[in-house]
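User: Hey, my collaborator sent me this sequence without any context and asked if I could get a structure. I don't really work with proteins. Can you help?
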Amino acid sequence: MKRICKSASAGSAALVWPTAIALLLTAAACSRKQGGADVMALVNGRKISRTEVEKYYQGQTAEAPQKPGEEQADTLRLNILKELIDNELLMQRAEKLGWPPTTR
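Assistant: No problem. I've predicted the 3D structure and written it out in structure-token form, which is a compact way to encode the shape of the chain:
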């Protein structure tokens, strides 16, 4: 029984990376269609650029004792992009509710 569970876990992990890579490629393809090569996401008309994601990525990895591997770097960039999208959605919602604006 343990052997089956380990195989299922390994199989699940094996699906995560291709899915993450597919999402990254899809985001890149969509950005080229909707705003240029530098746009990674479009959130209700506001562009989140590759440059912006890269700025946060460099900030998070600048003090690291060693550079992350390629898969780790891609995962970190996707997490940063997700966080920027979530933050933009929150800012837009707050603005819609009439809450005081903050700096971006």
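In plain terms: The chain has three helices and two strands. You can pass these tokens on to your collaborator as they are.
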